[in-house]
Design a protein that fits this description.
24 strands; single chain; binds guanosine-5'-diphosphate; seven-stranded mixed beta sheet; alpha+beta; about 20% helix
Length: about 425
């Protein structure tokens, strides 16, 4: 079976996101018989007809909350014979950009929906830009409501061609496009007899064959989530490996303090391992006492993470109140929380044209390139290399609300200069 795929759906209000996802689940055989009964009942009650309203299905699925780069996102799980999927549920249209950015920060692929009658909208460009900024490199462009444009291949082409140009400009590497009719399932789970001119794969086939996220290419990193002191003789550092690989006997370094040790044991719920790799949740025991705590990073001694206290980064502003430079926020990076200030807004980005504009403040949903200062040196990675150690959030001290998602571009000042 292919590796699990995490994806999100993007589109403007009423483009058909819920219907498409519901139809996808139905065609994937991921809907249980009792859910189907409920769907038939609810469709009849709401619409008084026999046709099924697939948008209702997405409400009945098992939902699970996970802590994301920014805020809680509800993720829904389903599977086919070939693959397990996790799809972000970004319900409602309020704060859609914020929810979408959160989902995108953890997803490997985005399904971008366009209404065939409307074509590419400012929203389409905006969502695609944010997907690219959040690290998504694969997009499926689903041109929906083809029934309302007479299944016209020229209308389809007039949307897909400019989208390919846009996506290429944004650095999205893989772009698949397909024409669909979400409620009827054309090209969702089965090929459409009504659009014989489209001979490519269905949406389900594209999702089943999409590439899973490649592991970050960097050396071993373990952001410490908690220190496990089960008894006087046991001390382990628990977390999820975020890049690289570690084996018993490897020399590691606890950052930012730079204490060295060797890995004595790699403990998991299923017993000890000789080695662990990216994505595995483990507890490391070291061969000597170190002073590691939540927020520290255990890294390869040969290739430690860079450490810095000033960054150049992109920020997506997510609060009603604008970002004003020099205010103090909490910054959460990996498992660490520190004090931070945005010292300068270098420019903001027009998300429709990608033009860089001068700015004194960032408003809700605006993207800017900023300098951020923190009150202590922290280990980090560029977001482009490692989302866990390169992505952070800013939290307002008074309201405790997440006000921004940040993506580290590079260090402005390295810790070696400030000790
Ligand atoms: P969302 O807001 O993006 O989640 O959109 P919905 O899934 O709620 O769909 C909005 C409306 O468009 C609903 O009335 C759907 O039945 C309708 N719709 C969705 N896809 C299609 C389509 O391919 N063809 C037609 N004719 N209607 C569609």
């Amino acid at each position: 079976m292919a590796a699990r795929l995490r994806f999100i759906t993007c589109g403007s209000v009423d483009d058909g996101k819920s219907t498409l996802l519901g139809r996808l689940l139905y065609d994937a055989g991921a809907v249980l018989e009792d859910q189907l009964d409920a769907l038939r009942r609810d469709s009849r009650r709401l619409h008084g007809e026999e046709s099924l309203d697939f948008a209702l299905l997405t409400d009945g699925l098992e939902a699970e909350r996970e802590q994301g780069i920014t805020i809680d996102v509800a993720w829904r799980y389903f599977h086919t014979m070939r693959r397990h999927f996790i799809v972000a549920d970004c319900p409602g249209h309020e704060q859609y950009t914020r929810n979408m950015a959160t989902g995108a920060s953890q997803a490997e692929l985005a399904v971008v929906l366009v209404d065939a009658r409307k074509g590419l909208l400012a929203q389409t460009r905006r969502h695609s830009y944010i997907c690219a900024l959040m690290g998504i490199r694969q997009v499926i462009l689903a041109v929906n409501k083809m029934d309302l444009v007479g299944f016209d291949a020229d209308v389809y082409a007039s949307i897909v061609e400019p989208y390919r140009a846009l996506a290429a400009r944004l650095g999205i590497e893989t772009i698949h496009a397909l024409p669909v009719v979400a409620p009827d399932g054309d090209n969702v789970g089965a090929h459409s007899a009504r659009m014989p001119w489209y001979t490519g794969p269905t949406l389900l086939e594209l999702l089943e064959s999409a590439e899973a996220e490649p592991a970050p290419p960097r050396a071993f990193r373990l952001p410490v989530q908690w220190v496990n002191r089960a008894d006087a003789d046991f001390r382990g550092y628990a977390g999820t490996v975020s890049g690289g690989r570690v084996a018993v006997g490897d020399e590691v370094v606890v950052q930012p303090a730079m204490q060295r040790a060797r890995v004595a044991r790699i403990v998991t719920a299923d017993g000890d391992l000789a080695a662990a790799a990216h994505g595995q949740a483990v507890t490391l025991c070291l061969d000597r006492e170190v002073d590691a705590s939540r927020g520290d990073v255990i890294a390869s001694a040969a290739e430690p993470a860079p450490v810095a206290d000033q960054f150049g980064c992109h920020l997506i502003w997510m609060d009603e109140a604008p970002l004003l430079p020099n205010r103090s926020y909490l910054l959460r990076l990996g498992t660490r929380t520190v004090n931070a200030r945005v010292t300068a807004i270098k420019h903001k980005v027009d998300v429709n044209t990608q033009a860089e504009l001068a700015a004194r403040r960032l408003e809700l949903n605006e993207v800017g390139y900023c300098n951020v200062d923190i009150d202590q040196p922290v280990p980090f990675e560029r977001y482009a290399d490692n989302r866990t150690l390169g992505g952070f959030v800013l939290i307002d001290r008074q309201s405790n609300a997440t006000v921004a998602a940040g993506m580290i571009d590079f260090a402005l000042r390295r810790a070696s200069n400030i000790h």
